[in-house]
Amino acid sequence: MNTADSEEMSQPLAQRGFSATSNLKDADIVLMNTCTVREQAEHRADSNIGRLRVWKGQNPHRILIVAGCAASRWGDSIQRKYPFIDLVSPATKIEEFPDAIEKVLKARWNFGTETSEHFNDNMTRASVIRDTTEHATLPRTTYHAPFIFGSNETAYVTIMRGCNYSCSYCIVPQVRGRELYRPMMDILAEIHHKVAQGYKEVMLLGQTVNSYHDRPETNSNPMDFADLLRAVNAIPGLERIRFMSPHPRHMRDPVIQAMKNSEKVCRHIHLPVQSGSTRLLEQMKRLYTHKEYVAIVDKLRTAMPGILITTDIIVGFPGETEFDFLQTLSLLQEVQFNGLFAFKYSPRPGTASADLPDDVPDLEKEDRLQKVLALNQEIKMPSSAVSA
Question: What is the largest CA-CA distance in the chain?
Fold first, then answer.
C-alpha cells in the first residue's frame, strides 16, 4: 500500500517535469511517505525528518513533504516540531495531494507561471523516502507510468482505502479513515492501461481488500470482490492476479469460488490470524474464533488443493497467558502455514488496547516470538531435515 500510494503521489510531480533520483544531494524535493502501523516505523520516520534538517538548510529552495499514515496521526504537530517541513499530506487526503503540491510549488518557486531561475537549466528532481498507505466512492484518478516505485513485473492497484473495523490493537482506521471504494470500471481501466504498459501481474490492494463492493449507477445490484476478481481475470494479456490483505470475515464462499474459477488468481493467500486464542481474538475484536479461522482454511484448501497460505501473528498482546500462547502454537501446527510474519505487541496511542496494561514482559514477548518463528521454520522443513 505504501508503494502504491507513493507511486500515486509521484504522478503530479512527474507530470510537472520532475525526474527521480536516489541521490539525496541531487534532489530538489523530498517526499517522505510514512507508516505508523508499528511504533518503530513512526520513530524511524521522525528520525529521518530530523536528519533532513541539514539537507533542507543547504538550499532554501528545496522542498520537504511529509505524507502518509504517520502524517495523519501527527497532524500539524510535526510541522511545529520541524518548521522546515513545507507540506504535511496525511494519508486520508491523498486525493488532494495534486492540489496541495501545486500550491507549494507556486509559493516556493512561482512554479507554473515563471519557473525560478535556479531551475531554468536543470531538470528538477524529486527523491522519495518510504518508511517501511455508508457506501462511499473514491474520486476518479488518472494514472500514468510508474515514477520510481513498484516492480517491473507487478502493477499495484488500489481498489479501496480505509477500514471499517475496530481491531483493538490497530491504528489504521484512525489514520486512513473509513472504507472508500473505487468504481469497478476505473479499476479495470487502470489494469487495462498497465497491461498495455507491459505488466503481466496485478496486486489488488485494500486494508480489508475482500470487503470491496461497488454500486454502479447503471445497475442496482452491488458488485463485490468476487465480481471484481472475475472481471480482472477476463482482461486479455494479464497473466497473474494477487491481492492483499483480506480479512477472514470476508473470506466467504463466493470469494473462494471466484478464486477457484479464476485461473489467473495465484494460488497463494495471506490471511492474517493474529492469535490462536479465541479469548484473545475476542479481545482483539477480530470477529472470528480459532475454529472459524481453521474452517476457512479448510475451505480454501478443498477448493484449491496446494494453495499456499501465509499469515500474521502477534505475541504478547495484553493479558496473553501461557495457555493463550499455546493455543497460537496449536493453530500453527493445525494449519501448517507456508510462512508468516510475527511481531511483538506494542501499544499504539489512541487504540483500545493501549488502555490495557502491557503486562507481558518484553523478555517473555521475545521468547514467544522466537518460539513462533522456530515452529514455523520446523513446519516448513521436511521431517528428515528436522530430525537431522
Answer: 72
Which stretch of 149-153, 227-231, 341-345 has the lowest confidence by average pLDDT? 149-153
Q: pLDDT tier at 20 (50, 70, 90 boundaries)?
A: confident
Q: 196: how many CB neighbours lie within 10 A of its CB?
A: 9
How far is CA 310 from its chain centroid?
A: 16
Confidence class for position 382, pLDDT limits 50, 70, 90: low
pTM over 0.85: no
CA angle 281, 285, 290 (to 5 degrees): 25
Give residue 351's region: left, alpha or beta (phi > 0; psi -120 to 50).
beta
CA dist., res. 330 & res. 152, Å (int): 39
Residue of 106, 194, 74, 77 lying closest to 142 (CA atoms): 194
User: Which grid coordinates are listed for 342?
Assistant: 510475527
Q: What strands lie across the sheet with 29-34, from one edge to the other? A: 19-20, 125-130, 29-34, 63-68, 87-90
Domains and CATH numbers, the chain: 1-132 (3.40.50.12160), 134-266 (3.30.750.210), 272-286+305-388 (3.30.750.200)
Average pLDDT over residues 358-377: 97
244: helix, coil or strand? strand
H helical segments located in 133-262: 172-176, 184-196, 225-233, 253-261
Q: Is 275 in a helix, a strand, or coil?
A: coil
Instruction: Report the C-alpha gap between 368 and 383 in whole angstroms.
Output: 23
pLDDT for the residue 337: 97
Count helices and strands in the chain by DSSP H and E runs: 14, 15
- Rounded CA-CA distance 104/61 in Å is 11
More confident residue, 147 or 86: 86
